[in-house]
Design goal:
The protein is mostly helical and 72 residues long. The protein is built from 3 helices and no strands. Helix 2 runs antiparallel to helix 3. The relative contact order is 0.12. It comes from Streptococcus parauberis KRS-02083.
Amino acid sequence: MNLLDRLKKANDKKSKNREIYIEKNRNSYLEELQELQANINQLKVAKNPSTTRLSILKKRKDRVENILNHDI
């Protein structure tokens, strides 16, 4: 077995483990997504919203959505 085959096999195993982990924790990710959306909405309606905090929340929301869609 050459190096390329070993790397591919390791990558396949990681992908399967990642999918299993995501499915086990899907509810947690969905709850986090709801909390993030609520926090984003609160910041948007605030008189002086923190653009840095809003940006961080939006990035985290995008990451959680990607995780749930198995894009990561």
